Each structure stands twice: as C-alpha cells, then as structure tokens.
From TrEMBL:
Gene3D superfamilies: 3.10.450.240. This is Large ribosomal subunit protein mL45. The lineage of its organism: Eukaryota, Metazoa, Chordata, Craniata, Vertebrata. InterPro entries: mtLSU_mL45 (IPR051975), NTF2-like_dom_sf (IPR032710), Tim44-like_dom (IPR007379). Its main location: mitochondrion. Residues 129-277 form the Tim44-like domain.
Length: 321
C-alpha cells in the first residue's frame, strides 16, 4: 500500500510545475485521502446499494377445471374425489313412515262418534302393520305383539334411570346411536330427578314398520308403543336451582316411543330410537331461568330499601328437550 502511494506521489509531482511547497500540500492531501483509516471510515459511513432481489409473485390458485386440463395436456390422470360421509348401519337415521296419533287421544271415549271414527281409522292402518309383524317374526322368533309392549316399557324405564345416573355404558345398550345425543344433550352440568309412578293405561303396540337400508335384504324393525303413564320430573342447574318441573307434582304423560332393532344382526337388541310428538300436543312449560338483578348504586351512608326495588319478570321461553 505504501509503495503504491509513493508511485502515485511521484506521478503527481512530475506534471505539476509549481513549487515544492505546493506539491507537498497536494501530496499530503492525496496521502490523507488514500490512507486506509480514511477508507475504512468512509466505507462505514457511506451507504452502498445492495443487490436488487428478484420478486416472485404468488401463484394464483387454478380452478379444478384448469387443473384437469393441464393434467390431461401433460398426460396425467387425476383421481376422482368422492364426497363420502361415514354412516352407522346398526341403526337407521330416522323414523320410517311415522305413526300419526289421532287428535284427542286418551281424552275421547270410544262410545262417542269421534272416538268411533278414530278406532275405525286405526283398524285400517293396522293392515300394513300386520305385514310388517310377519317380517319381524321371520328374523326374531321371540317377538310377540302382545308381550312386546311390557318389555318395551321396561326398556323405557331403565333407559331413563340410566340417564338420571349418567350410566353411559348401559345407556348405549338401551338406546340407539340416533337417540343417544338427543337424550344427553345439554345435561352435563344439570341434575335430573325422574321417577316412574304408575301406568294409567296398559302400554299398547300401535304401529310396526320393517324398512330396509343400503340394500334390499338389510332389514330394520321399528315398533311404535303408546305409553300413558304418571311421572315426576325435576331439573336443577349446576347451582342447585330448580329449572323445570317439580319432584312432588306427578303429571300424566302420553308418549309414542319408537323402538328399533337391526333384524339381520343375530346379536341385535330392541332399543329406544325416538319419540313421536303429535302436532296437536300442548306446549311444554317454560324453563325457570336464573337471572341477576342489578342493585341500585348507593352512597356509603345510604341503605337499600327492598320495598322500592322492582324485580323484572323473565319472559317465558319455550324449551323442548
């Protein structure tokens, strides 16, 4: 570095025709400018533009049609995608040909004109049920239409007792996969008190259907049983407050419960599958909701007067389990 600076000074001194003092000043200025200290300082201060980077724009998402065209042009075959949903073949997804309860059931006497018409319509509907009973007996030799109603009532009572005790293992054996979420939904932090008191009328088999699913030979038996019973029900929230019903108040309950069995399965069992709620059924009692009443703002020297506080009444909300 020093040799190159000396050569540069000699080259500068030769063309200049001035005095020695002027030449020395010029040489000192060049030497100061070309010193490595100055060069390092200038490189640290002066900003140098870096290499410009190439920007790659994001690729646009091609539609499925464009992808298929591009694949065909390239000689590739795209596998067809199927929208599949898993199903459970141990039970059906609904109630086939549901039973239509006559209006005013358990209220009209068969001696009246309207009651006689209802009995006549029920006998007409029972023709299809007789054909279905024959199919059920072909796969379930122990099925008896007279004895099945009492067995169904035992299943009904035991399933509700398992719901009260939160016995999920036994409840799965008594209800189908379709009925289970409807029974346990919303009961996680609640306390249920349910009791079966008595039967006001003997349980009766009113409707039988034998549908098939997926294939023609995959048969399911659906039996609708009419229950007219007396029960008590009370539901408490997680704080122990009463939400619905009363433990000491028995109520008459008229229900149409559907029981189902996979007939082709030799190990199949009769289980609760759902309930049929007629259109003429009266609405259920609303839930008693617990709300917080905001207290008035008081000064430290004031006292609250309970008589002057107006408690707002909650609006009635229709709730169905």
């Amino acid at each position: 570095m020093a040799a190159s600076i000396g050569r540069l000074l000699q080259a500068v001194e030769q063309p200049l025709g001035r005095g020695l003092s002027a030449n020395r000043q010029v040489c000192q200025g060049l030497e100061a400018l070309l010193s490595p200290v100055k060069l390092c300082a200038s490189a640290a201060i002066i900003t140098v533009r870096t290499k410009k980077r190439h920007y790659v724009p994001p690729r646009k998402q091609d539609s499925s049609v464009d992808q298929e065209k591009a694949a065909r042009a390239a000689g590739l075959v795209i596998r067809q995608q199927y929208m599949e949903r898993p199903i459970n073949i141990s039970c059906t997804a609904g109630i086939f040909d549901p039973y239509v309860p006559p209006e005013g059931d358990a209220r009209m006497s068969s001696l009246t004109k309207a009651g006689f018409k209802q009995r006549l319509e029920q006998t007409k509907q029972s023709a299809a049920s007789q054909l279905a009973i024959r199919k059920v007996k072909e796969h379930d030799q122990e099925f008896r239409s007279k004895d099945f109603a009492s067995k169904a009532q035992d299943i009904y009572i035991e399933a509700h007792n398992c719901l009260v005790n939160f016995d999920k293992v036994l409840l799965h054996k008594l209800v189908t996969e379709r009925c289970y979420p409807d029974m346990v939904r919303g009961n996680r932090y609640k306390t249920i008190c349910w009791r079966f008191l008595q039967s006001l009328e003997a349980p009766k088999l009113v409707h039988v259907r034998c549908p098939d699913m997926v294939s023609k030979g995959n048969l399911y038996g659906q039996v609708t049983v009419r229950f007219h019973t007396q029960q008590t029900l009370a539901i408490y929230d997680r704080f122990g407050r009463l939400m619905y019903g009363n433990e000491d108040l028995p109520k008459d309950v008229l229900e149409y419960v559907v029981f189902e069995r996979h007939l082709v399965n030799p190990y199949g069992l009769w289980r609760m599958h759902g309930k049929i709620v007629p259109a003429w059924a009266p609405p259920k009692d609303p839930i008693i909701k617990t709300i917080m009443i905001p207290a008035p703002k008081l000064e430290p020297w004031e006292e609250i007067e309970v008589k002057n506080i107006e408690i707002p009444k909650p609006e009635s909300v229709q709730w169905s389990k």
